[in-house]
Amino acid sequence: MSLSLQPGEIRVDVEDDGRPFNPLEAPEPDTTKPLEKRTIAELGIFLVRKLMNDLEYKRQGDRNLLTIKKKTQEP
User: Fold this and answer.
1) How confident is the model at residue 75 (pLDDT cuts 50, 70, 90)?
2) Per-residue pLDDT reduced to its tens digit, 6-29
3) Number of domains in the chain
4) Domain extent at residue 49
5) Phi and psi at residue 17, in whole multiples of 5°?
6) Widest CA span of the chain, in angstroms?
7) pLDDT computed for residue 31 by the predictor
8) Which one of 10, 46, 48, 60 has the fewest CB atoms closer than 10 angstroms to its CB?
9) How many CB atoms neighbour CB 68 within 10 A?
10) 3-state secondary structure the chain
11) Contact 36, 25 (CB under 8 A)
């Protein structure tokens, strides 16, 4: 995992050698279900999708690469 700050943007790159998994293809959770009936993973992906400005996923060789970007206000 790496974090970088650039003018107007925070960027997080997450890389692992787990099984192929594209979180961008995960179905939207049913937000009408009670919290105890939902999984942590589906809510985490949901929050990242809602709070971040840009998400990119790619599989490169045997690695998952996820880039998450959030725009910031310039000082």
Assistant:
1) low
2) 999 999 999 999 999 999 998 888
3) 1
4) 2-71
5) -110, 30
6) 42
7) 84
8) 60
9) 20
10) CEEEEECCEEEEEEEECCCCCCHHHCCCCCCCCCHHHCCHHHHHHHHHHHHCCEEEEEEECCEEEEEEEEECCCC
11) no
Contact predicate 12/67, CB 8 Å: yes
| CA 40/CA 36 separation, integer angstroms | 10
pLDDT tens digits along 26-73: 888 888 888 888 877 778 888 999 999 999 999 999 999 999 999 998
Which residue bears the tokens 């099984």? 19
Q: How many residues does the chain have?
A: 75
Q: Which position has the token pair 């310039």?
A: 74
* Euclidean distance between CA atoms 11 and 57, whole angstroms: 13
Nearest to 62 by CA among 20, 26, 12: 20
- Tracing tokens 């998952």 back to the chain, one arrives at 64
Confirm if 67 and 13 have CB atoms less than 8 A apart.
yes
